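Example 3.2
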Amino acid sequence: MRKAKVVCRELGCGNAVAVSRGPLVEDGRGGATLWSRCSGDESTIRECEAAPADCYGGYYHHVICSEFVQLVDGDGLCSGRLEVKSNQSWASVCEADFDQQDAEVVCGELGCGAPAALQGGLYGEGEGQTWDKEFQCKGNESLLLDCDTSDRKNNTCLPGNAVGLTCSEPDDVRLVGGGSRCAGGVEQYDEGEWRTVGAEDLNKEAVAAVVCRQLGCGSTVSVLPGNTTRGFSVICSGSEPSLRECWRKNDLFPVVTVICSDLLVQPDIFLTDSIGGVSRGHQGPEVFRGYNFTITCSTQPQYPGGSFLLTFTGSNRTQTQPAVNHSAAFLFPAADGSHQGNYSCVYDNYVFSHNFSSESELLSLTVTASPLPAFIIRHVVVLLILLTAITTFYLYYKTTRRQKRVNRVSSLDLYVDANAMEMVSLSSRAEAGPGEERAAQGTE
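Structure, written as tokens:
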């Protein structure tokens, strides 16, 4: 990509966007191999001191340039002073004519990630002319040239107002197989597929430093040995902002397996209570004096085990609990003025033979006076619980007693009915004659 940046600059075609390999065109032309490394700041490819050689690979390197837009005098391919082409020359853009949606289009056009910083004068003023239009991008255009423009509202662009833009690095690198986005084997998205990235043993540390930096995962903790797999290898100095700016080779070397310092995700911290003693105030959560409250620490199910350290900013007060189901609850029985302040959760875990930790955001807690004294509230709550229990027991007892009474009445009615039937039967027999009695017995 650094060589491609020089090529695009030499041709007046803006910034390098992508490099790929394609089949050699059979037109009788020879080829040359660029053995040296370009810094990316050269004006022409010859300044890279390329040594001509026979091209045996059978491939040309295809370069895509941005053509209409470029970032110059920056720290890499994704930062610099914004310039656009106007009448075959490059012009700076005034900060007043450019906004966040315009920046999103530029970063996407250059093959970079989302805008990270937009500030006038960040990368100098330039010596050429100033762009005389105001961009009106919606943010979903593929090219800045596709955006609508309008005449500038102001005819002058004050010094220090040339747009300086910093885009995040492209999302074309990942770490796989380590249970975290900050640990695993290095892969890079190349020509429509993810391919493994290898390096020589002496260069693995430099490659790992670039990968951890590009992913926003802090610094390198360790580089583990890996197996040789199909892919490609790279050579880095260690200072590159992204892996695509390293020197690339097609030789096969063991894949680089990296463990970065920001291995653990940031834990969460939140406040709960059981009897309504927590409210939401203007400055954050509030706890009434005398009430109990609970601070809960939790993290994503990333690695098993670990522990949570609850710290109280401004004092030496700390509590530690093991992580059970990736969380821990810290109970405070009665709030007072000493509990007011900032709390944070620190999650610690021992993974890959190293200790890692990650801290949550701060939880600002305010302790305020209760609308009613806490002991009155507690007594009222206890009385309500007792009243509920007594009412429930009384209703159950009343229902049970009524059911027993109904069962007893039903049994008595059945007994009376049976006696009545027997008395009717005896009376009928007494009134009938002997023959009729025998006939009645037969009928029975």
